[in-house]
């Protein structure tokens, strides 16, 4: 089991008009010693915009804007812009978010060169009715699972309102892979993956073909008890030598409603469609009073990270009311994930015998090579993870 430290609440609602109901689900990006947070800010009536604050180091609020950086002004986002994620690819920042019009929730994107001015680039996900989706995705066999969450009958939508399949939790990988922009999105109950050379390729015809092969475009499906109901993308993937580390959320239905937990998986670096392994237990779950009780009870919803040394800080929404942070050892998490790797037999069979958590080496510079000799007896790329081998381009 991974040791996770709950660092506590970072941000609460204020009396400012745009965030007087709650704050949650922040995007994060580290630059130098600062972390920029772009968060969902909710005003009365459940209307959302995106607020901003800057952290000194991973946990200290240095400044906080008294006005949102992104507000709803298009028809498809008339009720709010929600749940942002952010990455920097080349010289451009990509801020993805959920656009909500009171009926439909769909993934959209805006870009920036300076983190101050954002240009909307439009909707990124397919926009099909439930009947169209059912026809395109060809519900049969394992795909029939989508019918549970995508019927279009919510008992609320008016007859003259077109209800689309909800497609949320859009987030980019932080660099091009084999020349393409890769991103995740979520049509319940799974996480899907897509890749394009340019955002202009995301046409209706693209999505028709994509949905016709939805099974091949599914990255992760519910597998363990804590994620038994459905999954959703969380934080933008983190590049390590051992694969893309993905922190995502999993939901499980209980007698008290859905419980949202933070989860972790490892994806192949050059073929991110391939899952290397995932934790069979929740990375962390709602335990504290402010995670258990809020606008939506029993929720930890991870959406951003920052790496400082060996320590990974995970920023999350707590019960849809406040923003909090948890921290953990990145080398320990990667080692744990490799124990559950599905393809590389060396790690599951040998890493466990090293009792890493019981006797970590004092000299961080030497222990990868020493573990390498003990574990597999192969070259440097077979060594176990250390922070020095993680892509820390944010620094």
Write the layout of secondary structure elements.
Layout: E1 5-11, E2 22-31, E3 34-43, E4 47-56, E5 60-64, E6 80-89, E7 92-100, E8 105-112, E9 119-123, H1 130-137, E10 168-172, E11 181-186, E12 191-196, H2 204-212, E13 218-220, E14 230-233, E15 238-240, E16 243-254, E17 257-267, E18 275-278, H3 289-292, E19 300-308, E20 311-318, E21 322-329, H4 330-339, H5 346-350, H6 367-375
Antiparallel strand pairs: 1-21, 2-3, 3-4, 4-5, 6-7, 7-8, 8-9, 10-11, 11-12, 12-13, 14-16, 15-16, 16-17, 17-18, 19-20, 20-21
User: If you compute it from the alpha carbons, what radius of gyration comes out, rounded to the nearest whole angstrom?
Assistant: 21 Å
Q: In total, how many beta strands?
A: 21
The main pleated sheet reads as:
5 strands, antiparallel
What is the architecture at the second tier of CATH? 5 Propeller
Low-confidence stretches: 343-395
Number of helices: 6
* The CATH superfamily title: Glycosyl hydrolase domain, family 43
Oligomer: single chain
Structural class: mainly beta
The proportion of strand residues reads 35-45%
Task: List the helices and strands in order.
Answer: EEEEEEEEEHEEEHEEEEEEHEEEHHH
Give the domain tally. Answer: 1
How is the CATH topology named?
Tachylectin-2, Chain A
Terminal CA distance reads 29 Å
Mean pLDDT: 87
């Amino acid at each position: 089991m991974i040791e996770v430290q709950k660092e506590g609440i970072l941000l609460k609602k204020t009396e400012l008009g745009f965030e007087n109901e709650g704050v949650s689900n922040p995007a994060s990006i580290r630059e130098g010693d600062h972390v920029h947070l772009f968060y969902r800010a909710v005003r009365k009536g459940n209307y959302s915009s995106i607020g901003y604050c800057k952290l000194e180091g991973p946990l200290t609020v240095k400044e906080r804007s008294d006005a949102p950086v992104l507000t709803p002004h298009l028809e498809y986002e008339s009720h709010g812009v929600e749940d942002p994620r952010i990455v920097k690819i080349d010289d451009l920042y990509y801020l993805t978010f959920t656009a909500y019009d009171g009926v439909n929730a769909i993934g959209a994107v805006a870009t920036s060169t300076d983190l101050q001015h954002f240009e909307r680039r439009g909707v990124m996900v397919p926009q099909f009715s439930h009947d169209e989706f059912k026809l395109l995705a060809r519900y049969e066999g394992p795909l029939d699972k989508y019918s549970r969450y995508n019927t279009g009958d919510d008992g609320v939508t008016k007859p003259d309102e077109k209800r689309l399949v909800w497609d949320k939790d859009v987030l980019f990988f932080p660099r091009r892979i084999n020349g393409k922009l890769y991103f995740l999105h979520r049509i319940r109950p799974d996480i899907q993956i897509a890749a394009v050379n340019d955002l202009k390729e995301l046409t209706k015809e693209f999505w028709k073909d994509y949905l016709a092969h939805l099974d091949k475009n599914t990255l992760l499906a519910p597998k363990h008890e804590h994620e038994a109901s459905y999954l959703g993308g969380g934080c933008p993937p983190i590049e390590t030598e051992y694969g893309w580390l993905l922190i995502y959320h999993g939901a499980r239905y209980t007698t008290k409603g859905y419980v949202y937990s933070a989860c972790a998986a490892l994806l192949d670096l050059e073929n991110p469609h391939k899952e290397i392994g995932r934790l069979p237990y929740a990375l962390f779950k709602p335990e504290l009073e402010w995670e258990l009780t809020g606008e939506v009870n029993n929720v930890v919803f991870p959406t951003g990270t920052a790496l400082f040394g060996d320590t990974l800080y995970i920023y999350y929404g707590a019960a849809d009311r406040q923003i909090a942070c948890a921290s953990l050892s990145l080398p320990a998490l990667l080692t744990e994930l490799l124990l559950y790797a599905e393809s590389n037999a060396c790690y599951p069979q040998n890493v466990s015998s090293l009792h890493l958590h019981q006797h970590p080496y004092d000299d961080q510079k030497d222990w990868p090579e020493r573990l390498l000799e003990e574990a597999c007896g192969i070259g440097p790329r077979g060594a176990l993870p250390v922070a020095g081998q993680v892509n820390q381009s944010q620094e």
